[in-house]
Amino acid sequence: MKSLPYFCRGEVIRGFGRGSKELGIPTANFPDSVVDNLPADINTGIYYGWACVGNGDVHRMVMSIGWNPYYKNTKKSMETHVIHTFKEDFYGEILSVVMVGYIRPERTFDSLEALISAINSDIGEAKVKLQLPEHLKLREDNFFTTAPASSADLSSTTGSTSQTILNGH
């Protein structure tokens, strides 16, 4: 995928409410404007990379892009699991991510337990791959130090902001 690494940011919005409650794996969801501006060569599936909430620390992350076949969603989404324990929800905060690699295509599962197992496997794979020097250097990218602290600091739409950031790298 020639668009990787891909840099984007947007305000964290409420998703389906399944990550924390059903899966025990909380996710941060991007608005449609960010999802709709993904490059054409970013396929659906599971990605790994780095994420930063507001002006906080940069953490490892895994992201699902697609329709979540297990749940039969009709709307494409970008759901980021930041591999870090936060004390509270951060709806309304700005999430900045850099997707650096692809783990697997999205697929359906026979049970909730199988889905949870696959997500945990994806998290383990991301932790290993993010130790590679070419991925570690992106953790220090100035994209994260120039992240706006709030949605008021974004330009008119998060989608155009993510395009600007992509083109600036």
Helix content: 25-40%
The count of domains is 1
Bulk shape: globular
What low-confidence regions span 5 or more consecutive residues with pLDDT below 50?
155-169
- Count of separate DSSP helical elements: 6
One letter per element, helices H and strands E, the order comes to: EHEHEEEEHHHH
Query: So what's the CATH class?
Result: Mainly Beta
Average predicted local confidence, pLDDT = 85
Using only CA atoms, what is the Rg? 15 Å
Sheet with the most strands: spatial strand order:
1-6-3-4-5-2
Secondary-structure class: alpha+beta
Largest sheet: 6 strands, antiparallel
Question: CATH-wise, what's the superfamily?
Answer: Riboflavin kinase-like
CATH architecture: Beta Barrel
Strand content: 25-35%
Region (Disordered): 150-169
Keywords: ATP-binding, Flavoprotein, FMN, Kinase, Metal-binding, Nucleotide-binding, Transferase, Zinc
InterPro entries: Riboflavin_kinase, Riboflavin_kinase_bac/euk, Riboflavin_kinase_dom_sf
Organism: Cynoglossus semilaevis (Tongue sole)
